[in-house]
């Protein structure tokens, strides 16, 4: 059977197994980025570095992702999608395994930058790769399934990896993730369809995309949504302590995770038909959850319910915005999603900095007001942006 016939056969029905395999790639991608945050004290003691230096291991990764996404996606557009993904998985594996073996902080920074560069290319390209394996009416569903790996990584993967790190050492955690990535790469080499690259043209360049009003609207929604969510999420421990939530941060993350998983299932089923409605609901639910924190956060059960609602709002964040921007172009969807991905990563950096600044001056409730203040224009723009979110 020819490669063309294989691709057509995949498209004829939704390829769940292939999409779940791709979801495992985003699962390990988010773990590669966030792992140091779960074992900060262990890395500090072992490498004899400060808390700020250890935290920077996540920061350097994110910066590399944001800076290199657009130029490298444009550069690698002609590459075969399957071959490129296998190369990126190799980069993830090497950066994690070697980081678990060396003892020099500077070398580990370099390895984190390599991992960040791979992530900067992987996030937008895997979504576009998945969309090319299904018919147009299933593009949103494909993105939702693939990006579900990020939600599972945050809600399930991180607690598991942190537990491994605490029980067996952070080096075992890093090396173990690297080995797991190699296994995913082997399965991907055997299972994923081979898809040729695309030629980058002037009409599909990043600069051309930024001239499309609907793309700019989606990028604005990305900025508002990500800063609103992550401005609070990065400092979730402070919020939990401020409202004195029963069960502490573990309880908060549990309810947040349950909400996220439920919303991912909703996104998988309804993104293609109700993209705009789901985007409006996302901003609406974060406003409602933050208001509950302000008014009833200390009331038994209400704080937990607010974390659940917040999780429902948070879960489809990546899916909805990537689906929206991908609909604005016919070809070179990798470039479109890379622009959105870069804004997403830059927005996380802004959220972290702005949230830290507010927390240093005001009470944790200031983060809640920040989230509400950004979500209100977000919901207004979503209501008015019929063309951008169609």
UniProtKB/TrEMBL annotation:
Residues 17-390 form the Major facilitator superfamily (MFS) profile domain. It is found in: Cell membrane. Keywords: Cell membrane, Membrane, Transmembrane, Transmembrane helix. The chain crosses the membrane at residues 12-37, 57-77, 84-103, 109-130, 142-162, 174-195, 215-236, 248-268, 275-296, 302-321, 342-361, 367-385. SUPFAM superfamilies: MFS general substrate transporter (SSF103473). GO terms for molecular function: transmembrane transporter activity. The keyword Cell membrane applies. GO terms for cellular component: plasma membrane. InterPro entries: MFS, MFS_dom, MFS_Efflux_Transporters, MFS_trans_sf. This is Predicted arabinose efflux permease, MFS family. The lineage of its organism: Bacteria, Pseudomonadati, Bacteroidota, Flavobacteriia, Flavobacteriales.
